[in-house]
Amino acid sequence: MGSAVRAGAAGVLGGKTAAAVAAGALVLTGAVGAGVWWARTEPQLRVVQRNAQVALEAGGQRTAVAGCAANETALGGGYAVDGAGYATTSEFVGSSAWLAAAYNPGSAPVTLTVYALCVNAPVEFAPRGGYTRRALAFRDRVDKVTAGADGRIHDLTTDGPWAGLAGSALGTDTCIPGFTMTGMEFRADRAVTGHGAAPLPLERLAPLDGSGTAPFSWVASVNPGTRLASRTYPLQSSDSAERRTRIEDPQPPQANYAVGVRAICAKLKDVSVVTAQAAVAAGGTAELTVRCPKKTFAVGGGFGFTVASAGGGARPQPYFGDGLLYASADGPPPGSSGHVVREWHLAGRNEQTAGTQFHDSVWIEHRNREELTGNGYFDSRARGADDQELRGATVPASQQITAVAVCGTVDAPPTRPGPTVTAAAPAVPPPSWDVPTVPGLPTPATAGPSGSPGPSASVGTPTAGPSAGGASRTPGATPRPGASTVTAPAPGGSASARPQPPVVAVTAPQPGGTLHRGCEETFTGTARTRPGDRPITDPQHTLWQITGPGGPVTLGTGGSGRSTVPLLADGDYTLDFAATDPDSGLVAHARTTVRIAGCLR
């Protein structure tokens, strides 16, 4: 209602009543003449963010889900980690919510925020199939040539389970005609089953079509996880030695990391792509916000690092260990849930060290100046006076990152407001990874003089009082091995009626049993509430961990299942099964000792 209308209404009805009219409320009946006065504001079409947050502990992975209102449809979503950390999964939950799982490689806790882009209008989407396209961390040179007595290099790219994977570094997907690709869902996976895998971030999730046009296809890529050979091996000739590569065996678990991608295809109007760039200094971060044109909404977005040249020449292909490049935030700008989305926000992180040399750069060592034969090897430095640098290897002072916003309008009538949907996380938890050791974390307590804790000993340790509303907590307390908890009766009541830590036990593997690193093993346990004796079956209330030299390593969740054993050295380790009472929030642990040996299967 315009100002002139409000002034007229104030003169007839009074200031307070006119204010109610302007607010769109039912204000008066029969006050002026014979009639009924109604003021009603029609709903306006808009795209808003609905967000949810969860604490992300150091070295851990968590999942959060943001849900739309009952009258809204989810167009897509995004995520933000307020520090070191990156998403490993970002996908739809039904048609009205968005899920993201993130990993925190740092030594301090951070917060994961998940955004759902919600529009109060029906939008037509193309049918979504399975995650049929994948982006792999495993890499080799695309211009590799053969070597060896038979004209081939026998390594992981030619023999064994890794054969054929080197050329699948990019995950791409497209939309059918008539639909606009606003983004891609992605979900973490293993490239080769039965082998260890550790998480890596995406270094690119962006349209292929460039700026200004409606995107038809997108591409995703993972930071490289391949490690080249660090030992020398014979070459018949030093010609093209920089292209004669060999892949180490075994591979680091990061090389076995992959993400499946799936296109988000919607029918929209006036779609355009807006981009912005910033230099991200080595060891630093950069924030970018891309604004959509007037009268359009941000319906998706992405990012990509532009490969920079080193010393004016071709930049060496990075390999695992060079430093990760990723976006810790890829979503709407931070704001309250329900805020209109007309911008896209990006936080680029560069974990490289300026001036250093790329890990596994290529050099050639000549036996003498006349001979062409010699040894090719990959290292970060020359090994002798006759060594010849084959290509530049210096890490640049910064890397360029591009932020992308997909902007458009929706050609559909708006729907009226409804209550916000409370979306629950799916029953299947995100996969567990052989996460690297996080520096700075406290070392878990060791066993007493008698050795290790007793087999399947149930140790109850309250971590908090009963939570309001029955909110659940992630198992995280670390009681002293062999400790016991005695719960005193509450005033006026008995100990049996008062909430106590659950009863927890490990049933497999057996105490002293052998687990094979890199192989999948079966883990089973039981957990029941006290009082009530109800089984705790929800995966989000259980946690399996094994304590290595650098601290606990998460295996997975749930009362039973199969998980890949971490790549730990031969020896005895403590296996921990923790369960949380979903009503009281009290946690109990069961611990047993297992032996880890090589995978012989």
Automatic annotation (TrEMBL):
Compositionally biased residues, Basic and acidic residues: 240-249
Start-end of Low complexity biased regions: 443-479, 488-503
Superkingdom, taxonomy of origin: Bacteria
Region ranges (Disordered): 229-253, 417-503
Protein name: Ig-like domain-containing protein
Organism (species): Kitasatospora arboriphila
